[in-house]
Amino acid sequence: MNLTLKIWRQKSAQDKGQIVEYKVKDISDHMSFLEMLDVLNESLVAKDEEPIAFDHDCREGICGTCSLHINGEAHGPDRLITTCQLHMRTFKDGDTIFIEPFRSKAFPIIKDLMVDRSALDRIQQAGGYISVNTSGNSQDANAIPISKPNADESMDAAACIGCGACVASCKNASAMLFVSAKVSQYALLPQGRIEAKDRVTNMIKQMDKEGFGNCTNTGACEMECPKGISLNNIARLNREYLVASI
Ligand code: SF4
Ligand code: FES
Questions:
Q1: Ligand 1 centroid to residue 229 C-alpha, Å
Q2: Which atom of ligand 2 approaches the CA of 56 most closely?
Q3: Angle (CA) 150 155 161, round 5°
Q4: How does pLDDT run across 70-102, given as a tens digit for each residue?
Q5: Other residues' Cβ atoms within 10 Å of the Cβ of residue 181
Q6: Fold of 3-111
Q7: How many CA atoms lie within 13 A of 174 on its CB side?
Q8: Which atom of ligand 1 is nearest to the CA of 120?
Q9: CB atoms within 10 A of CB 223
Q10: Considering only CA atoms, which residue is closest to atom 8 of ligand 1?
C-alpha cells in the first residue's frame, strides 16, 4: 500500500505545532499501525530528519500508552482495540490518514504525538487502592464469598488500561469513564467497601483539580474505549458519590 500521512508535529509543549504531510510506500497490510510509523521513522532518520515521537510500550493492548487519534477517532476506526492492535489491513491503498495526539487540556502535549497523561495517575493515587495487611496474617482470598455477577463486573471494570481514549473522545474532555472504572472495580468487592467513601470523594476531587470536564451522558467514551468499559460504571460512580456526600 502507498499512503499519505498527515501527522501532527510539535517540537515541544511551547511550540504551536502543525500538520505535516508524509508519503509512505510498500506498506504491508500485515503490519500494525505502529510498525507503519516505525517504517516512516526509519526513513526520516535515514534522511537525517527528526523522527516522529509517539508513545508505545507493550504493543499488545495492555499498557495503554499507544494513544493516537487516527482519522478523528481515538485508537482508530476499529472497535475494542488499542492503536498498537490496529492493523494496516483496515486501510486501503491510496488512503490519506490523519494522525494526531489525544487532545485535552488535562493532557498537555510533550512532543509530536506524545501527551502527558500523568493526571490519570494522580487520580489513581488519590484512591485507586485498598489497604490490606500483608505482614503474613492476610486472609485467604477465597475466605470471603463474592457473588459471580459482582466478581464479573469488578473484573470488567478492572480491564481499564488508563489509556485516556475516553477523555480524548468526550466533547467535555471528561474523565468520568476512567474514574468510574477505577471506583467500580473496588466498590463491587467487600475488600473495597472499607475505604469506599474516601476513595470516591478523593478521586472525584482530584479529577476536578486536574481540569477534566463534566459528563453530559453523550456516550462517546464508551464507543471509543478499547476495553469496552460500560457507562453503567458512571451510574455506579454517581451513586457511590451521592452516598459518600450525605
Ligand atoms: S475507560 Fe477505557 S478509554 Fe478510558 S482510560 Fe480506561 S480503557 Fe482507556
Ligand atoms: S503499546 Fe501498550 S497498549 Fe498499545
A1: 7
A2: 1
A3: 145
A4: 999 999 999 999 999 999 999 999 999 999 999
A5: 26
A6: Ubiquitin-like (UB roll) (3.10.20)
A7: 19
A8: 5
A9: 14
A10: 163
In sequence order, what DSSP letters do the residues of 124-174 get, joined into one string?
A: HHTT-------SS-PPPGGGS---HHHHHHHHHHHT-----HHHHH-TT-B
pLDDT given at position 153 = 98
What residue ranges do the domains of the chain occupy?
3-111, 118-245
* CA of 164, closest atom in ligand 1: 5
Q: Rounded to two decimals, what is the model's pTM?
A: 0.96
CATH code for residues 118-245? 1.10.1060.10
- Output the pLDDT for position 133: 80
Residues 6 or more apart whose CB falls under 8 angstroms from that of 77 comprise: 70, 71, 90
- Per-position DSSP letters for 178-216, written without gaps between them: HHHHHHHHHHTSHHHHTTHHHHHHHHHHHHHHTT-B---
Compute, in angstroms, the gap from residue 134 CA to the centroid of ligand 2. Answer: 31
